[in-house]
Amino acid sequence: xxxAYLEKIGRMAQNFVDSAGLMAxxxxxxxxxxxxxxxxxRNIFKQMEFVGVQSLFxxxxxxxxxxxVLALQSYNALKxxxxxxxxxxTVALSMARExxxxxxxxxxxxxxxxxxxxxxxxxxxxxxxxxxxTMAVNPVKYLVVPRVLAGVLMFPLLTVVTDFIGVVGxxxxxxxxxxxxxxxxxxxxxxxxxxxxxxxxxxxSLVFGLITTLVACFNGFYTSGGAEGVGRAAxxxxxxxxxxxxxxxxxxxxxxx
Length: 257
Description:
Layout lengths: L1 H33 L6 H11 L4 H23 L8 H39 L2 H7 L4 H39 L4 H11 L2 H27 L4 H31 L1
Helix pairs in contact: 1-6, 2-6, 3-4, 3-6, 4-6, 4-7, 4-8, 4-9, 6-8, 8-9
């Protein structure tokens, strides 16, 4: 029994190393092919619209209710110390540095990441990717590069939207519901929030965009096993992407404190 467990652990470790290596190779190929003509701007804009514009609704909802909840919870905690005026800075800093990029990343991973993995997985099992190779079309340049570039470009914009909507939601709850003076709320927020706080979240969102799209493309590109394999690829892209976002967020936060 012990031997069976050790073999299972060994296979898992081997699969992890294999996947990490293949993903690194795909990333390097995408980086090189990005600057190799011809550049298909139509494909890039199409993926930007899919990743960015079509994710706006879920991102706006997430940002609004997160900001509202933050205002309520921080007010209840700060009221004990007579520091209700710090609700605004608490909401703004939390959204800008952490919750904005992380929640936007997780939401888009669940929506766009799974769709990318499913689309590429379906193309793999139906041999459409093999057909591209037969026609002398590089599948990484045609399928992966536009999606990865769209993620890197659109995630910061979605993060800005999430931050703004979250701050507005917190303001509405803090001023209209909790009775905080609007001048104090805005003034304290401006005093505490710096431009570097905003850029911290934007830097993170760049990494999250790369992680989400690269993981989704990798899982879809190397799908096997028919329809069941496509389902596994979609699940793996969401789970792996979400975990990597949280892990990378901690690593980056430890260097940006």
